[in-house]
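Study both lines:
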Amino acid sequence: MTLTQERKQQLISGFQVHETDTGSADVQVALLTARIKSLTEHLKANKKDHASRRGLLKMIGRRRRLLGFIYKEDPERYQRLIASLGIRR
C-alpha cells in the first residue's frame, strides 16, 4: 500500500524539471497519483474504511489544484503530464 523509496525515486527522476528538482508541481502530481492509485486499491478491498476515503479525497483535491496551476502556467506541459500519468481521459 505504501510507496517504496525506490519507486518514489523513480517517479522523482522521471518527472523532475531540472537536475536537483524534488518538489516541483510535476513531481508532486506524479507522487500523488501513485498514492491515489495505491489507496484506491486499498479501498476496493476495505469498503468501510471511511477515514482513508477522506484522505483519498483530500489527495485528489490537492492533485486537482496542482494540475490547475500547471495548466495556467503551461498548457503543453499539462497535456504531456496527464498523458504520461494516464489521468483525465
